[in-house]
TrEMBL record:
InterPro entries: P-loop_NTPase. It comes from Paramuricea clavata (Red gorgonian). This is Uncharacterized protein. SUPFAM superfamilies: P-loop containing nucleoside triphosphate hydrolases.
Length: 191
């Protein structure tokens, strides 16, 4: 816990709020069982306790409820239970995205010939393969660039409904404008 606390503290040294994201999976937990303390294991897996409170309690401080307003800025636990105006807008956006995904899933590719679809997929995959280069690239291509096989499949399955660069930006889960530009340039060849 001390090491984690030290790492997340680096983000707030300028006095400004900064998010901390902890990535883990069950393999990490089981692989490092001997190295990981129960306190850290509970911190990672807990979904019903304020993470800020857990850290402060570990160091001997007692927190009497969340003092941050709005509370969703505290941690993921408080974000899940917050119903302020900002969170309500986010929930509506998530519902809109889910409905859009349902519409996209039911869209047929009748206007796109099978050969074009294969070529489109191949060209997008080729770009994806060229993203991972050098020793300086950390993690997977998807993690470092946001460009994934799932994104390629979504672009291909949405071929008929994506008709502009703006459509790529609004309808596809693109990580960077650069990726959106490449996707649109490739799509234009098959329109």
């Amino acid at each position: 816990m001390e090491e984690y606390f030290q790492e997340i503290g680096r983000g707030g040294r300028d006095g400004l709020p900064s998010p901390a994201t902890l990535y883990y999976n069950s393999h990490d937990l089981s692989k490092r069982r001997k190295e990981m303390s129960n306190v850290m294991r509970n911190y990672v897996t807990s979904t019903s306790v304020c993470r800020r409170e857990m850290i402060l309690k570990y160091f001997g401080y007692i927190l009497d409820g969340c003092t941050l307003l709005p509370i969703h800025k505290c941690c993921d636990y408080h974000k899940d239970i917050c119903y302020c105006e900002d969170c309500s807008v986010e929930i509506v956006s998530e519902v809109d995205l889910a409905l859009r995904d349902i519409v996209l899933a039911n869209t047929t590719l009748s206007d796109c010939q099978e050969v074009d679809l294969i070529q489109l997929r191949d060209e997008l995959t080729s770009y994806w393969l060229n993203l991972h280069y050098g020793r300086s690239c950390i993690g997977s291509t998807c993690f470092s660039s946001g460009y994934s096989i799932e994104l390629i499949e979504q672009v291909c399955s949405s071929f008929d409904v994506v008709n502009s660069f703006d459509d790529v930006m609004t309808m596809m889960p693109v990580f960077t404008k650069n990726n959106a530009i490449v996707i649109w340039e490739v799509l234009k060849k098959y329109k």
